């Protein structure tokens, strides 16, 4: 890995740390993951910029701060089981993996699922499983999860995802249509209920029905 990418990554994480509210274990995980390795070549120069990046197939890698916020909000550590909907580049999954989580990630676009699985394998990440499919159904056989992180926005909460978070677990999900303001909601599952514990205005690609 080059000195330039190392420096850029340290600067990216320092900028997130300055904004505050993100636990040090999450910052440490983001310091470890070579984000540029998961950005397609044509946009690699943007890998450490404070912005979302187009990765093809109608998908975008979220802005680094949003990844930090969502990872922190999931409130997970080593050994936690996490479901991610929307594998995209595999970056969010790699950050969760660097935290020591067992990650189950579902992607609906075949090219993205294949590329992410290959990139994660190349980087030696062995605690992420990628499955091709419609994330609305979650990953029932691997449930319940300590946290569910959705990285594409549905207009309403998909019921299966709410059910696959364990009691006491977290559900982190952007919600809203494409022509209206979206809100990232962080829910804690309390028994059968979901209680909102944090929100943030966001902009995500739609969770498609496949
Ligand atoms: N977490 C990704 C960001 C992905 S952008 C990263 O770290 O790079 C949102 C992703 O959700 C896209 O890859 C898109 O193809 C995927 N997606 C959209 N609808 C989906 C669905 N119904 N099921 C699974 N994935 C979906």
What does this 3D model show about the protein?
The chain has a single domain, classed as Vaccinia Virus protein VP39 (Rossmann fold), CATH 3.40.50. β3, α4 and β4 form a beta-alpha-beta unit. It is α/β, with parallel strands linked by helices and 210 residues long. It has 6 helices and 9 strands, in the order ααββαβαβαββαβββ. Helices cover 30% and strands 28% of the residues. α1 runs antiparallel to α2 and α2 crosses α4. The model has no long low-confidence stretch (mean pLDDT 97). The chain is globular.
In the predicted model, the low-confidence regions spanning at least 5 consecutive residues are none
How many beta strands in the DSSP annotation? 9
Described by the principal axes of the CA atoms, the overall outline is globular
Structural class: alpha/beta
Hetero compounds: S-adenosyl-L-homocysteine
Structure at a glance:
By secondary structure, the protein is an alpha/beta fold. It is 30% helix and 28% strand. The strands form two sheets. The chain has a seven-stranded mixed beta sheet with strand order 5-4-3-6-7-8-9.
Keywords:
alpha/beta, 210 residues, 9 strands, Rossmann fold, 7-stranded mixed sheet, binds S-adenosyl-L-homocysteine
């Amino acid at each position: 890995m080059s000195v330039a990418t190392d420096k850029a990554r340290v600067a990216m994480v320092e900028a997130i740390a300055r904004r505050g509210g993100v636990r040090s274990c999450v910052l440490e995980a983001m310091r470890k993951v070579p984000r540029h390795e998961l950005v397609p070549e044509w946009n690699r120069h943007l890998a450490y910029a404070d912005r979302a990046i187009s990765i093809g197939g109608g998908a975008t890698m979220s802005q680094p701060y949003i990844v930090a916020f969502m990872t922190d909000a999931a409130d997970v550590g080593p050994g936690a089981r996490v479901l991610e909907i929307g594998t995209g580049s595999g970056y969010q999954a790699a950050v969760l993996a660097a935290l020591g989580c067992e990650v189950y990630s579902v992607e609906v676009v075949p090219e993205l699922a294949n590329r992410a699985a290959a990139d994660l394998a190349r980087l030696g990440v062995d605690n992420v499983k990628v499955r091709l499919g419609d994330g609305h159904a979650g990953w029932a056989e691997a449930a319940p999860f300590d946290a569910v992180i959705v990285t594409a926005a549905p207009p309403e909460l998909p019921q299966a995802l709410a059910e696959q978070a364990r009691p006491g677990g977290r559900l982190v999900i952007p919600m809203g249509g494409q022509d209206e303001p979206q809100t990232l909601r962080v829910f804690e599952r309390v028994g059968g209920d979901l209680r909102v514990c944090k929100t943030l205005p966001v902009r995500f690609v739609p969770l498609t029905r496949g």
